[in-house]
Amino acid sequence: MIVDSINNGIVIDHLTKGKGLEVLSLLKLGNVDYPVALIMNAHSNKYGKKDLVKIENMMDVDLTVLGLLDPRATVVYIRQGTVAEKKNLCLPEKVIGAIQCKNPRCITTVEKDIPQTFLLVDRKNRCYRCEYCDDLKILKGDGLDG
Amino acid sequence: MKMKEKAHMDLKGRSLIEPADLNLKEMEELFVLADRIRKNPQGSGEVAKGYLMATLFFEPSTRTRLSFEAAMLRLGGQVIGFSEQGSSSVAKGETLGDTVRTVSCYADIVVMRHPKEGSAKVAWQELQIPLINGGDGGHHHPTQTLTDLYTIHCEVKKKGRLILGVCGDLKFGRTVHSLLKVISLYPQVEIVLISPPELKTPEYITKHILEARGVPYREVESLEENLPQLDILYMTRVQRERFFNEADYLRLKDSYILNREKMSKGKKELVVLHPLPRVNEIAKEVDLDPRALYFKQAKYGMYIRMALIMALLGLERKEEHDDCR
């Protein structure tokens, strides 16, 4: 299978197999008018299989959310056909607006306009703490769901 | 000789949202100031003259609100506020942030109690004046912690290792959470967590505070079996307002009742504390036991709140010191 190289844009590489579709959804790439390619189950020397997303003409991506979704992914910035920058993702120390506190007693469930803020407390177990109520949230698998 | 005793300039303008906002040294300094207030209460009568405290109680409270109001009035200041959510503009749909921001235009210091966890942090983000968290849901109650620690400071004479037992509702009991967070900073403290399995201490306390700080602790179910080892027994009530299910409350409410028979198994120097109000977890007969200090604890609470208000407002008090003659 041949997929054209991109000239200016982003390649989200080394995604865990099956994560590519979630990335498309998360970055709302379903209705854009620039070229987007999703490659699933591609060969990876390091991981065996991987997903891969190529986005032409887009240079701005939310690394925090991507890091939460799949901390093993790599974001490669392409400018004029060459690799300009490469970023390895990891679980972010602070997450604003991407995780919802499910503690029904938390103030964020009733007060308007408070940014939901979570702080990483245990990287190994993917455990975050709500900055307001201290409720712990362990992200299951590699996803955003607790 | 007259001298001016300066309150903690370090604390001036600061807020108390959670117990960790004060370090141990700052707490000890507050205890020293509270000791001086307690020994000479008349010396504080004009300290806060011209200052106004707003008490915003979105949830019913007798003790905490009256303790703060008594503290401010005894310092010579004045108090405004409300004692239930229905009396505030929040009932009309106003956000908490807007309410506290408005009140801060009128007052010099705010005390707030709110049923939602984390509400004090939200209020603090909106305020330019000191805020004291008077309890945010089942989360923190830092001035109760100050009260508990001040009572221990005044009443526990034993030196060296202390075994603290906390008993009752350890899941929703905010006073317990706050106390454990701070007392775990002291060296030589061992903790016994006594509760039914359904009301165990949350993991963010056991795993991320007690274990992380290397504090020896154990979780047990029997009060009777563990009482003989304790130096301090901290009783709590099972809090009806924290349950979504009335049947669960009724099933658990009588899990632990401290009575004269159980007290007979405790050490002679045991100190029994309770944040109050009690429901039926301590039998009335225990009140006569000299080791039952919960009502004295309420009085200590007023003195430590007086010290805290002085410190956050940066107030000074004129005091006559025998040792300065």
Compact overview of the structure:
The complex is a heterodimer of chains A (146) and B (325). Chain A is 10% helix and 37% strand. Chain A is elongated, with a radius of gyration of 17 Å.
If you had to describe this structure to a student in words, what would you say it looks like?
The complex is a heterodimer of chains A (146) and B (325). Chain A has helices at residues 20-26, 63-69, and strands at residues 9-15, 36-44, 48-56, 74-79, 82-88, 94-96, 117-122, 127-130, 136-138. Chain A is mainly beta. Chain A has 2 domains: 9-88, Aspartate carbamoyltransferase regulatory subunit, N-terminal domain (Alpha-Beta Plaits, 2-Layer Sandwich); 94-138, SH3 type barrels. The model of chain A has no long low-confidence stretch (mean pLDDT 87). Chain B contains 11 helices and 11 strands. Chain B has helices spanning 24-39, 63-74, 96-103, 119-126, 142-155, 174-183, 203-211, 223-226, 246-252, 260-263, 294-313; strands at residues 2-6, 52-57, 78-82, 109-114, 131-136, 162-167, 189-194, 217-220, 232-235, 271-273, 316-320. In chain B, the strands form 3 sheets. A 5-stranded parallel β-sheet of chain B has the order 8-7-6-9-10, with helices on one face. In chain B, strands 3-2-4-5 form a 4-stranded parallel β-sheet, sandwiched between helices. In chain B, β6 (162-167), α6 (174-183) and β7 (189-194) form a beta-alpha-beta unit. Chain A binds chain B through residues 103-114, 121, 129-136, and chain B through 95-97, 114-119, 121-122, 136-139, 203-204, 208, 242, 244.
